[in-house]
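so my prof wants the structure for this chain in the tokens format not the other one, which i didnt know existed until like an hour ago. anyway here's the sequence
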Amino acid sequence: MPYRTAFLDLTYPDESARPCALQFRIAFTEAPERFGIIQLRHVNPDHQSPLNSSIVRDHVLNRILDVYLRGVALNAIRLVVEDGETLALFAIEVDIHDYITRGNPYDATHVTTGRGRFSERVAIRTDSVIAGRARVHTAHAKPVPVPKEKAAALR
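here's what i got, hopefully its the right format
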């Protein structure tokens, strides 16, 4: 049986820095591959929804990762947003500049780009990205339907 926390209330600022609130919980999928699923539930239509605002979604996501899932590998975490009848999964991407600034491990290769210029190609291993050790974002993520096994963990 998958594990689910109770829904908790969370306050957050909207894009205009006005106070808002939503509910969230964390659920685990069943074995063989266990994922932690962060479920954000938009409950007040007067408050800005994380489904429609990447700024809100990223603010809330980073707070939850830092407080509740610190130390968990980011590749084992998924984000699901619920707004009314809509249930959507969002891909989570690491903020590469913040990741490097915080001293996390990465490989850098200098690449000649022409006319005596060089650029640096940075590579990170997905298993070395840990929740709470770098900011993440969902700004480029498109909402997709939640797969059956992840939706089952939320029921």
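also thought this was worth mentioning. The chain has a mean pLDDT of 93.
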